[in-house]
Write a structure and sequence with these properties.
By secondary structure, the protein is α/β, with parallel strands linked by helices. Helices cover 51% and strands 17% of the residues. The chain has 25 helices and 20 strands. The strands form 4 sheets. An 8-stranded mixed β-barrel has the order 12-13-15-16-17-18-19-20, surrounded by 4 helices. Helix 4 runs antiparallel to helix 5 (132-152). The structure holds ligand C2E and magnesium ion (2 copies). Residues 555, 610, 642, 672 line the site of one magnesium ion.
């Protein structure tokens, strides 16, 4: 608190007189104003009393010889009183503050002093000349003036002392100048009166200042609280509330103007707890009110005054006076907006924005709930994990908005198939999940059949027809599994199997799937090590001329010499290597290994290498080929790359460019497994393959199946008319060999000639040079590190 700074003390200065009452600077103007106001209201009374006293004195001394002297004196007093009255009238109209206020106080003190001095002069002038009666009147008037004046002016102690001191001194002196012990005694008495009055004024003023200071402090606090409350009211949509001991809402007995609008729903006299909608929060509130305990941020739903539902957060605490409970008091905050945002965010966190279906999180929560709930013995429940079969195709060909529309339609279709107790969710991408319950005894399987059929139906996407069936894995809940994560995993494994089996299939989870999944995971880890641990081997299967049966080439076929499982065939790991992203590394190893081995074969024997679609698109394929050919001094025309139709299904522009790059290099390209893949033959027109390989599935049944014979013959005719060579794979019998030869097949490959073997084992069919007799690399082609170098090399070669 700021303390009063001592100013040069004048006799009537407040600080001089009351140095020991510290008045903070900020309260001084208020105090001064209050002093002035109090005294101002008394000024006319004082002046009138002054004139009355003057009249009484003049009347008493009318007959005495001092009469004329007193008349002049009286005139002076009237004049001064008149001046003081006029000045006061003038000042009263003006607003007095700051230095003006202090000047006014000083002026009042000065006026009091002048009036006091005049009244002090009277006894000194006339006391000796007056008779006892007049002396008595004068003494009484002056004493009265001392007391009444100091009492009325006590709020301005300077003025009070200025008035009473001269009067007291004048009266005392005049008594002292009289003869007689009684007068001396009166002088002493007057001195005592003066002393008493001095302390009375001082005491009274002290009380006045203290009262003022405490009032000012209270007012300060009130203002601060009021400001805080107003701020609170303006910056938030909160309300204060209070109940009586019976829980009924009361008017808030606050003296402050909070600026808060009372809440529409807070009706005085209403039972607080009954205003809110029944919910968990209301129960919590009722419990707190019952136990007379404070509560914080209880979220409640209530109808506002306008009939709208809104959310409030209620905080309150009990009020006790002594030990007596008086009710509750607290704050209600309108949280409708934040609750709406919260609800929207919760919805976003739990629902898929595209389809409006529950997302993965909600689905898992629901799954947990369902699994905890005991189910009737005549019911079966299952989790279905669905995946769309051709979604990528729709997305790629019709565009992403069409893909979104398809997902929406799928969600509607699934929802229409679901029963009331079932749940449909979209965990993400083109995956959907269903939790279904059906009566035991085949209804579940029947539903799966219906669902598969329904999902097979085409979709109308803004006028375009999209075929997008779904495959799904099923995990039926049983009494042994209580872990939702396990159930999810099992459904996913079942889906994996359904996808493997073909499109638009469903597959029920069996324990065997888990074992093979475990094996798959193990294979992944082992496969990574296989390349580094030198566990891969290239076997070679001969291709012979269909007429002479002399060897014209070999196809390299990868084998994995597993330390425990022995020789593992590519069907078991090529797909996994593709899934795990290992195929490119593995395929490059095959190219290098196959060409290194091919260097041991005579120049007229070609070597074929299988290239998987991912490897075909890899950025390092061309460099690997060129480097391997150069390193082993093999003419590019001896190398044949075998690609399947699936290579041609993606990014045709790039595929064609790459096919031409390979061809420009002088390397040949064969179309492997012809007839098993993509049905369009347009790619045969777009690119001149060197060779078509009839898939072994058609060759196998040539003996017994006329359709297979027809396909084989048609393929041979097609190849011939397109000017391409034709190799038949999987030839196992002489009949097959003869049939194919008779219908124009150029080359034969199959167990009839030889299985795939390590190169050394083919020595009975072809001359195989020993491994250590390999010619050192003669640089026929430059060492290249990127496809760009390869391009430069091929264009140079063309030139
Ligand atoms: P493919 O390229 O069509 O190879 C022919 C497959 O048929 C080989 O199986 C071969 O052993 C088998 N086969 C050959 N003649 C007969 C026969 O008379 N009867 C029967 N039943 N089968 C015969 P393999 O070696 O198991 O290879 C399977 C597939 O794995 C290959 O089919 C090829 O697609 C892939 N593959 C093999 N090696 C590689 C490789 O190095 N890279 C890539 N990307 N794929 C490879
Ligand atoms: Mg092949
Ligand atoms: Mg093949």
């Amino acid at each position: 608190m700021e303390q009063q700074t001592p100013s040069p003390a004048t006799f009537w200065s407040l600080s001089g007189l009351l140095r020991d009452i510290p008045v903070p600077e900020k309260y001084r103007p208020g105090l001064l104003k209050k002093q002035i106001d109090t005294v101002s209201s008394m000024v006319f009374v004082l002046l009138f009393a002054n004139l009355l006293n003057l009249a009484v004195v003049l009347q008493s001394f009318r007959q005495s010889e001092a009469g004329s002297l007193l008349a002049i004196w009286g005139f002076c007093i009237i004049f001064i009183t008149g001046l003081a009255a006029l000045r006061h009238i003038r000042i009263r109209r003006a607003s007095i503050h700051g230095r003006l206020a202090q000047a006014h106080v000083d002026a009042m003190s000065r006026a009091a002093l002048i009036i006091g001095l005049f009244w002090a002069a009277a006894p000194l002038l006339v006391m000796r000349l007056a008779d006892v009666q007049a002396q008595m009147v004068l003494a009484i008037v002056l004493t009265g003036m001392m007391f009444a004046g100091s009492f009325l002016l006590s709020r301005l102690p300077g003025a009070a002392l200025s008035l009473m001191t001269p009067i007291g001194v004048g009266l005392g002196l005049s008594m002292l100048l009289q003869e007689g012990a009684a007068y001396q005694l009166l002088t002493v008495l007057i001195a005592v009166y003066l002393g008493v009055l001095f302390f009375a004024v001082r005491w009274s003023h002290r009380l006045f200042v203290e009262q003022h200071l405490s009032e000012a402090a209270v007012q300060d606090q009130t203002q601060v609280i009021g400001l805080l409350l107003r701020d609170f009211g303006q910056s938030t949509s909160d309300w204060l509330w209070q109940t009586n001991a019976d829980g009924l809402l009361e008017e808030i007995p606050l003296v402050f103007d909070t600026g808060c609008e009372p809440a529409g729903f807070m009706r005085t006299g209403a039972l607080l707890s009954s205003m809110f909608e029944p919910c968990e929060g209301r129960k919590e509130l009722e419990a707190a009110l019952r136990r007379l305990e404070g509560f914080q941020d209880i979220v409640l739903k209530v109808e506002d005054g306008a009939g709208e539902m809104c959310w409030v957060s209620l905080t309150g605490k009990p009020i006790f006076e002594g030990h007596e409970f008086r009710g509750f008091r607290g704050v209600a905050a309108d949280i409708t907006k934040s609750k709406q945002i919260e609800d929207r965010m919760a919805r976003m966190a739990h629902y898929d924005s595209l389809t409006g279906l529950p997302n993965r999180v909600s689905m898992q929560v629901h799954l947990e709930k369902v699994m905890r709930r005991p189910h009737a013995p005549d019911k079966v429940r299952a989790l279905l994990w669905l995946d769309l079969d051709n979604f990528k195709w729709v997305n790629d060909t019709l565009g992403h908005p069409a893909g979104d529309e398809l997902l929406r339609q799928v969600s509607l279709r699934l929802s229409s198939m679901a029963g009331t107790a079932d749940m449909v969710a979209r965990p993400g991408g083109d995956e959907f999940a269903m939790i279904v319950e059906r009566p035991a005894g085949g209804a579940l399987e029947e539903f799966f059949g219906q669902l598969t059929e329904a999902m097979r139906a085409p979709y109308d996407i803004w006028g375009s027809t999209a075929h997008c069936s779904a495959s799904f894995g099923v995990r039926v809940f049983d009494a042994y599994t209580s872990d939702p994560c396990e159930v999810l995993k099992h459904a996913d494994l079942a889906l994996y199997d359904a996808k493997r089996t073909g499109k638009a299939q469903w597959c029920m989870f069996t324990q065997k799937m888990e074992a093979s999944a475990r094996a798959r995971v193990q294979v992944e880890a082992e496969l990574e090590r296989a390349i580094d641990n030198d566990e891969l081997r290239v076997f070679f299967q001969p291709l012979v001329d269909a007429r002479s049966h002399s060897i014209v080439g070999v196809e390299s076929l990868l084998r994995w010499r597993h330390p425990v499982r022995g020789l593992v065939f590519p069907d078991e790991f090529i797909g996994l290597a593709e899934d795990y992203g290992l195929i490119t590394r593995m395929g490059e190893w095959v190219i290098r290994a196959a060409l290194a081995q091919a260097a041991r074969l005579p120049d007229h024997v070609n070597v074929a290498v299988n290239i998987s679609p991912l490897q075909f698109h890899s950025a390092t394929l061309m460099a690997t080929i060129v480097n391997a050919l150069a390193a082993n001094n093999i003419a590019p025309s001896r190398l044949e790359l075998e690609i399947t139709e699936s290579v041609l299904m993606t990014d045709t522009e790039f595929t064609l460019r790459r096919l031409h790059q390979i061809k420009d290099l002088g390397v040949r390209i064969s179309l492997d497994d012809f007839g098993t893949g993509y049905s369009s033959l347009s790619y045969l027109r777009a690119f001149p393959f060197d060779k078509i390989k009839i898939d072994q599935s058609f060759v196998k049944d040539i003996d017994s199946c006329p359709e297979s014979r027809a396909i084989a013959v048609a393929t041979l005719t097609l190849a011939r008319s397109l000017g391409m060579r034709c190799t038949a794979e999987g030839v196992e019998t002489l009949y097959q060999a003869d049939f194919l030869r008779d219908h124009g097949c150029d080359e034969l490959q199959g167990f009839f000639i030889s299985r795939a073997q390590p190169l050394d084992n083919l020595a009975h069919l072809v001359e195989v040079r020993p491994a250590d007799d390999l010619p050192r690399a003669v640089v026929a082609m430059p060492e290249v590190s990127s496809d760009a170098n390869v391009l430069a090399f091929t264009s140079e070669k063309r030139a």
